[in-house]
Design brief:
six-stranded mixed beta sheet, 510 residues, binds adenosine-5'-triphosphate, 17 helices, binds magnesium ion, alpha/beta
């Protein structure tokens, strides 16, 4: 038996206006974890979609267990043991976990009816197998009520429901908590111990260096090279990916205007998830909200933007008490919310890139009688596309055909065009490559220097530490600590506040 399970040679794939893959090679060995790296739009998702039967290649050859692959549908690929855990989750939102898992292959009773008991049992067994207990969700949970992280786990259960030989993970940890990430890593180790081969696409290089055996790098649809992880350094991989000097980001001055308050929140309660949140955001301030998933950061932001009802407490914008909040009012109040969920609230996927960027500031580019000023719209959109290095053939391309990371950049561009006074960023660099991250940090810093007020929600400590003037650490629906002297803190100290309950806030800073 050969050591190689999958061999791709000279694979090309074109989309309208773009050559996504230009004769790339990729070789996967039995039982290895093989990372696939590259900037946003490099062609990573396209290759693994071809390998798993979602897209057809234009040219090239794929050998699976030594013979040319002649399969057609995703189901055929899955049956043959090749499955994909996609970057964007594609579960049926209204169905249960168990129904999603058995979707193409419902268990039947002797008389041909759906065997519900068996279906739930199959799901429970898979949940057990991936090492996740039923505290968070059960086979009968409706998928729509699950967090993104848990939906990702359901995708994983689906992939291992059939006996796989090759599993491709596309950014699997981007919406998982630290604990869930650790559990996923141990699951991956179990899978490889059984001889299963893993393709691992991620922008998190630290993870790649922890769990992968080899790494292949693509740039602009071309193959750059393959290295053994234990013989290569992170900076070498980075320079293979970006092929240029990286802009380093370090924050200099702070622009906080202490005497001017942009937002004041007092005693915010919501369902059982927020338990008396109070804080102020000053003009020109970057206020970091840190905490583990479910600690109440995103919920607070959603309430501020008007996406959740039934809260109690006071919210003042620029000193004015808000009786009710809706997203439309927020936009009028020059408040914007850059979400982590680009498919839901972030973008209109069927619309063009240009339309998406101009949506929130359509008023600003409209002339007399609200006719859209197309020239101005074009100029602003073009400027933002360049600044954020969004990879797109033309501005009329639908947002749906952008790569995952480029869609995320588009969400940011959309709100930058709106020229808001207060901006809430929720995980702004999720899925964004190392090269573009620094550009986004610089943009956020620029916004603060112009006197805008910023709330930055991030699970990445280095990111929150590099940008914030002040950090509020959330824990279990409360603000557990307010940290003002950010530069003197270590990651461990901040993490401590996210996990351990404190009586005194500002422990470290006073
Ligand atoms: N269905 C599609 N229709 C049109 N263009 C597409 C489609 N899918 C991908 N592309 C284009 O092909 C190129 C490669 O995209 P791909 O999704 O493979 O990138 P990626 O390396 O996965 O990037 P990211 O890190 O942002 O996820 C991009 O320019 C993208 O816009
Ligand atoms: Mg991708």
């Amino acid at each position: 038996m050969s050591d190689t399970i999958l061999k791709c040679q000279g694979i090309s794939k074109a989309f309208p206006g773009i050559l996504a893959l230009d004769s790339v090679d990729f070789e996967l060995r039995r039982g290895e974890v093989h990372a696939l790296c590259g900037e946003n739009g490099a062609g990573k998702s396209t290759l693994i979609k071809i390998i798993t039967g979602l897209y057809a290649k234009d040219s090239g050859s794929i050998l699976y267990n030594g013979s040319e692959v002649k399969l057609k549908t995703v189901q055929e690929y899955r049956k043959a043991g090749i499955s994909l855990i996609p970057q964007e989750i594609h579960l049926a939102q209204e169905l249960t976990v168990a129904e999603n898992i058995s979707m193409s292959n419902y268990p039947r009773t002797k008389i041909g009816a759906v065997d519900w008991e068996k279906m739930y049992a199959v799901a429970a067994e898979l949940q057990e197998k991936i090492g996740f207990g039923q505290d968070a969700f059960t086979p009968k949970s409706i998928v729509r009520n699950l967090s993104m992280g848990h939906q990702q786990l359901v995708e994983i259960m689906k992939a291992i429901a059939t006996d796989s030989n090759v599993i491709a993970f596309d950014e699997p940890t981007s919406s998982l908590s630290d604990d869930e990430t650790e559990q996923l890593f141990s699951l991956i180790r179990d899978l490889t111990a059984k001889g299963i081969s893993i393709i691992y696409v991620s922008h998190r290089l630290a993870e790649i260096f922890r769990i992968c055996d080899r790494v292949t790098v693509f740039k602009d649809g071309k193959y750059v090279g393959t290295k053994n992880i234990n013989e290569v350094r992170i900076d070498t991989v980075v320079s293979m990916m970006v092929g240029r000097e990286l802009t380093q980001f370090a924050r200099g001055t702070s622009y906080v205007q202490r005497d001017k308050t942009a937002i004041e929140v007092e005693n915010l309660y919501w369902r059982k998830k927020l338990k008396g949140i109070s804080f102020k955001l000053h003009r020109g301030e970057i206020l970091g909200l840190f905490g583990i998933i479910g600690s109440g950061r995103t919920e607070t932001a959603r309430i501020l933007f008007g996406l959740e009802k039934d809260f109690t407490g006071t919210i003042k914008l620029n000193g004015k008490k808000q009786e009710s909040l809706t997203p439309a009012k927020s936009v009028m109040n020059r408040l914007s919310f850059i979400t982590e969920d680009r498919r839901g609230e972030g973008l209109s996927l069927g619309s063009s890139v240009k339309w998406n960027i101009s949506m929130p500031f359509i008023k600003a580019v409209s002339g007399f009688f609200s006719f859209i000023n197309h020239k101005k719209e074009h100029a602003i959109a073009g400027g933002l596309i360049q600044k954020l290095r969004i990879k797109v053939p033309t501005m009329d391309t639908p947002a749906s055909s952008l790569s995952g990371g480029n869609q995320q950049k588009l969400v940011i561009a959309k709100w930058l065009g709106a020229e808001s006074e207060i901006m809430i960023f929720d995980e702004p660099t999720r899925g964004i490559d190392v090269g573009a991250k620094a550009e986004i940090y610089k943009l956020i810093d620029d916004l603060a220097s112009q006197g805008r007020s910023i709330i930055l929600i991030s699970s990445e400590l280095p990111e929150i530490m590099a940008l914030s003037d002040r950090i509020l650490v959330f824990r279990d629906g409360e603000i557990n600590a307010e940290l003002t002297d950010v530069k003197s803190l270590t990651e461990e100290q901040i993490l401590h506040f996210a996990i351990m309950k404190t009586k005194r806030s500002n422990d470290l800073c006073s």
